[in-house]
Amino acid sequence: MVISIIMRLFVILTVLTLFVSGCSTLKPVQLPDEYTLPPSDAPLWQSLESIRPDNWFVLLNDGQSALDWRLTAIDSAVESIDLQTFLWDFDTAGSLILDRLVSAADRGVLVRILIDDTFLISEDRMLVALAEHPEIEYRVSNPFKQRASGLVSRQLFSLNEFHRLDHRMHNKSMIVDNQIAIVGGRNLADEYFGLHSEANFRDLELLAGGPIVQEISTSFDDYFNDDWSLPIDVVTHIKPNYVDLDAARHVRDPGAYEYEEISEGARRQLWEKAVRQAFQGDAFLFVDKPPVENPAAKESEPVQLAKQLIELFDKAEEEILIISAYLIPSINLEGAIERAVQRGVDVRILTNSIRTNNHLAAHSAYRTHINELPADGAQLHEVRIAARDRHFYMFPPTDKKSLALHAKALVIDTDKVFIGSANLDPRSLRLNTEMGLLVYSETLNAEVRLMLERDFYQANAWHLRFDEDGNVIWVSGNVALTSQPAGSFMQRLEDWFFMHLPIEDEM
Fold first, then answer.
1. What's the Cα-to-Cα distance from 86 to each of 57, 118, 177, rounded to whole Å?
2. What's the CATH code of the domain at 476?
3. Contact 223, 432 (CB under 8 A)
4. How would you classify the pairing of strands 379-383 and 479-481?
5. Are 219 and 287 in contact (CB under 8 A)?
6. 11, part of any domain
């Protein structure tokens, strides 16, 4: 039965490939370079600079703080906002962010938006209307030429451009007035802020100020000016829909989250208090280069960040904590982990279990490595679907909400923390572009370590070990499972099926 289905799919894909092979492909567009405005000298930012002239960081560990600070930052903007993201849904969180951005543009703030095209489905009319605002520029990274209304149909009709479209922009940042920036793993949707009624993500970000912001702004400019970052009205030629835009600004679930704009004076007090309590440290931006000409070309492979992470592993002396939502270790990564263990470095890893991973095919690829990592000496843990402490990261009520891991972070020795958009899998380390911040700070290191320790508790995560016969078991408290904690037989069957497909390099 399964073989029959596979053969049918093969025939269909072959026919579709022949059909679309005659379709035209999208070409890059050269536009005049644009650059972010110089750092604003507005009184608010001058005040913060006088408190902390060097780099400072606020840890955004839960959904509420992440959304509160994002909206506060937008409302604080005087001259410019640059937003770069992979996914943006216009639900409660997404619509609030959209509404505040348009309000900022209405008061004269220049808003530049760069978004990956993977999940922009049936929203072109609204986005064209958004881009018609005189203070808003909206560009799409590596877009699909075929603007089909469904994700699957659009990808099928773009098979002739698969190798280009397989490379995505996964970077996430928001820069306000070239003075502060938010960098991390969150996409712009309810589930990334703990607002979804069922399934949510545990994520991490850094709110940063100081000289490092200039580097983040430069990176945004590099991507915004890339020839494969196209204005939305170049990608699609349909008429704008202002009704849809207005509706997208006002999607709300009043029972989930309420945002009240505060006065300029209250915002200033809020910022000053946060900066006084912020962590300090030297910072380095890890970021892949945008594609030069063809995203699929060998010379355009985004491997810069991957190499930097491997170097971090090789320099570790005492401990490495790895938080990666999707984990499929490459030969280079697994070798770095093994070398670290051999040097006496304690390596602990937290990733998703089969029930918390929202990409089952990616989990199946990871599962082929679960014997190797503990054998190399690393401690491997998987998030439990019913994690006891999941309420820390979500808005109430949380009883019926599940929590999955989406954070991407490293805690190395006692002085280094990396937080960004990159998972430790082939897609992040070879196919997609990524970014993140490496911060040298003993106090931030201690705080992140303390927060992450909770995620490793047996009440929140399975610990994978070997039994007497050398088989992997999943242990949590007094419970020991001899097979992975799947939700159903069908989930196990799907996992087995994906596990035997040669798709690991695409995950």
1. 23, 8, 22
2. 3.30.870.10
3. no
4. unpaired
5. yes
6. no
Residue with tokens 């897609």: 427
Q: Is residue 271 part of a domain?
A: yes
CB atoms within 10 A of CB 453: 12
149/214 same-domain check = yes
pLDDT at 15 over 60: no
Note whether 243 and 144 are same-domain residues: yes
The domain in which residue 251 lies consists of: 44-276
The Cα–Cα gap between 188 and 92 comes to 10
pLDDT band of 17, cuts 50, 70, 90: very low
Average predicted confidence (pLDDT) for the chain = 92
State whether the Cα torsion 453-456-459-465 is positive or negative: negative
260 and 293 within one domain: no
One domain, residues 393 and 483? yes
Which alpha helices (DSSP H) does 77-193 contain, by range?
92-106, 124-131, 151-156, 162-165
The amino acid occupying position 82 is D
- What span, in angstroms and rounded, lies between the C-alpha atoms of 268 and 271? 5
Helix (H) or strand (E) holding 438: strand 435-440
**Residue 359 maps to a domain:** yes
As a whole number of angstroms, the distance between CA 224 and CA 306 comes to 22
Is residue 257 domain-shared with residue 325, that is, in the same domain? no
The candidate with the shortest Cα–Cα distance to 460, out of 474, 444, 476, 446, is: 476
364 dihedral zone (left: phi>0; alpha: psi -120 to 50; beta): alpha
Of the residues 276, 309, 332, which one is the last residue of a structural domain? 276
Q: Tell me which amino acid residue 5 is.
A: I
Rounded to whole angstroms, the Cα distance separating 446 from 443 reads: 5
Confidence of residue 21 (pLDDT cuts 50, 70, 90): very low
Query: Does pTM top 0.85 for this prediction?
Result: yes
487 Cβ partners below 8 Å, 6+ apart?
Answer: 354, 355, 385
Q: Which helix (H) or strand (E) holds 85?
A: strand 80-85
Verify that 267 and 295 share a domain, yes or no: no
**What stretches of 191-342 adopt beta strand conformation (E)?**
199-202, 205-209, 229-231, 279-280, 282-287, 319-324
DSSP tag of 227: T
Q: Which of 247, 276, 305 is the endpoint of a domain?
A: 276
The pLDDT assigned to 29 comes to 87
The tokens of 292 are what? 């030069």
Do 255 and 350 fall within a single domain?
Answer: no
Confidence at 295, pLDDT banded by 50, 70, 90: confident
Residue 70 CB coordination number (10 Å): 24
Distance CA 158, CA 460 (A): 41
Q: What's the domain count of the chain? A: 2
Question: What span, in angstroms and rounded, lies between the C-alpha atoms of 417 and 150?
Answer: 39
Residues 342 and 251 in one domain: no
Within-domain flag for 296: yes
